[in-house]
Amino acid sequence: MKRTRDVIGLPVICVQTGKQVGAVKDVLLDGEWQVRAFILSDGHWFQEANGVEWEGVIAVGDDAVTIEREDLIKPLEAADSWRMLLGGSRRIKGLPLVTVNGHQLGIVDDVYLDEESGRKVIGYEVTEGFISDLKEGRKWLPMPDSVKVGEDALIVPVHASEALEEIFVPKEE
């Protein structure tokens, strides 16, 4: 499994020229929980964020993201249902995961991408806070059947609480 935190910061290399054309600053996710684009530069007052859409990506490797041509980097126009992982007012990181019956499972700290293509979100890394992470470790929630992306929370089915798994077990003192 590949975490988006492993992708953010990777250099973006153009295979046509061998030139590094940027570095991944954020990941743009669509309503189907797939990577739509990699953000390479932040948007400002009168300028949209620049990035490369998924269709222009050749591979997401351990050491770099490769693209075919430099002209694939362009201003991105995101749809209303799309969200960034780290940035903007519609970010995923930091949102609480809440079941339909009102039980909070934790806070989204990262998302996991499928190993084969690196495009599809297959689960969430969930934290309950720094102290809890040290004592109990973080948890992994495989992608539920349905996820409602709200303004202030991600709403998951009730049975999602049963699917939470520990990522690592802390050392006993």
- CATH class categorisation of the largest domain: Mainly Beta
Rg value: 17 Å
Biggest pleated-sheet summary = 8 strands, mixed
Mean pLDDT: 86
Pfam family, one: PRC
Domain PRC-barrel: 3-68, 90-160
Organism: Paenibacillus filicis
InterPro entries: PRC-brl_dom, PRC_barrel-like_sf
How would you characterize this protein structure?
The chain starts with a strand and ends in a 7-residue tail after the last strand. Strand 5 and strand 6 form a beta hairpin. 9% of the residues lie in helices and 40% in strands. The chain is elongated. By secondary structure, it is mostly beta strands. The chain has two domains: 83 residues, Roll (SH3 type barrels); 71 residues, SH3 type barrels (Roll). The protein contains three helices and 17 strands. The strands form three sheets. Strands 1, 11, 12, 13, 14, 15, 16 and 17 form an eight-stranded mixed beta sheet that branches. A five-stranded antiparallel beta sheet has the order 9-6-5-4-10, with no helix packed on it. This is PRC-barrel domain-containing protein. InterPro entries: PRC-brl_dom, PRC_barrel-like_sf.
The gist of it:
The protein is mostly beta strands.
Defining key terms:
mainly beta, 173 residues, 5-stranded antiparallel β-sheet, 2 domains, disordered C terminus, 8-stranded mixed β-sheet, elongated, 3 helices, SH3 type barrels
